[in-house]
Specification:
The longest helix has 112 residues. With 116 residues, the protein is mostly helical.
Length: 116
């Protein structure tokens, strides 16, 4: 019977090893569950941050649209100023021509009045 006793001892040892392995696996499962709770909490925070970021992006898009509108207004204002400056240059040139003409007319009047 030593063979049978030996086999029974091996089976008991194997059962003991399996029990130890199962115990380690249970501990690992408990650790994994705790880690999953932490991961779930992190996911909740990430989702919350994403919602806040989406709100910020919407705000930024609105600000960009507003800036584009302001740039358009500034471009039109610059165009209006350039046109006004052009008109002022034209007026100045016309005034110079008129002054030159008046100067010629005055010199002719002076020349006539002096009898030249």
């Amino acid at each position: 019977m030593p063979f049978l006793e030996e086999r029974v001892d091996r089976v008991e040892n194997d059962i003991s090893e399996i029990k130890k392995d199962v115990s380690v696996m249970k501990d690992d499962i408990v650790d994994l569950k705790a880690d999953m709770i932490v991961v779930k909490a992190d996911i909740i925070h990430i989702k919350s941050d994403m919602v806040a970021m989406k709100g910020d992006i919407v705000t930024m898009k609105g600000d960009i649209d507003e800036l584009k509108g302001s740039v358009g207004v500034l471009q039109r204002s610059v165009g209006n100023l350039e046109r006004s400056m052009g008109l002022m240059r034209d007026d100045q040139a016309q005034m110079k021509a008129t002054m030159f003409e008046m100067s010629n007319m005055l010199s002719k009047l002076v020349a006539r009045s002096e009898g030249v």
